[in-house]
Design a protein that fits this description.
alpha+beta, two-stranded antiparallel ribbon, globular
Amino acid sequence: MTETEVISTHDRFNCALKSQDWAELAAIYSDDYMLVRRDGAALSKQEVLKDLQIGGLEFKEVEVADVKVRIHGDAAILTGVSRTVNVEAGQGNRISFPACCRLRR
């Protein structure tokens, strides 16, 4: 796994979010993926995909700045600052938050 492969995978993920490519997201997320929301709710891979498909959250723009990649054997960690424009429950939002993604071969 190289830094270029890690960044490419993350770019594929962001493109799939924006284009609502559920098959691509399902292929990228690991089967044991878990998302913990700001309110503390934990969602499994299937719950996240279902939530995205029923319109819980739509991403219009996704950008990651200050990207750093660290590779440790067969795992990599990508960090940066994520800026998104999304629509949730009909309300547009601009959000900036620390990004941290773990990738494994």
